[in-house]
Amino acid sequence: MTSQHRPQDRATAPLIQVPNADRTSVVGYSVAHYLFQRLSRQRRSQRLPDVTWQDLIDHIHAHDDMLRLADSAARRLLYRQAEPLYKRLLAQVEVPPLSRRLPNQV
Fold first, then answer.
1. What is the pLDDT along the chain (106 residues), one digit of tens a residue?
2. What are the residue ranges of helices labelled H in the chain?
3. Of 61, 52, 53, whose CA–CA distance to 81 is shortest?
4. Within its chain, how far is the Cα of 78 from the centroid?
5. Could you give the CA distance from residue 67 to residue 49 in angstroms, rounded to a whole number?
6. What pLDDT does residue 14 have?
7. For residue 57, what is the enclosing H or E element?
8. Given CA atoms 89, 94, 96, 97 in this order, what sign does their dihedral have?
9. Are 13 and 2 in contact (CB under 8 A)?
10. Exposure on the CB side of residue 83, measured as CA atoms within 13 A
């Protein structure tokens, strides 16, 4: 329901029309600020199902994305989901041989 359908309720309409530059037509809709705030708070507090985490873990391959996802899981105390990502990240790191890391001792 948009503000166009109920002009008397424009201040509380869930969708606000976004007009084009010359205001002759509607190019889209924007969610009302109060509704966006409420829904984003609710969404943020809900936990993703385990199957969703598993799909993300299985289908993510970029190093930066894996790191962000692992950190997100760890911040949520979801260590079962974070651990395999951290292991994959560690497997990608090339560690130089010990002889190159330590100075020569005579």
1. 544 565 556 566 778 788 898 888 888 888 777 777 777 766 666 788 899 999 999 999 999 999 999 999 999 899 999 999 999 999 988 766 666 655 655 5
2. 33-45, 50-59, 63-75, 79-92, 98-101
3. 53
4. 16
5. 20
6. 75
7. helix 50-59
8. positive
9. yes
10. 4
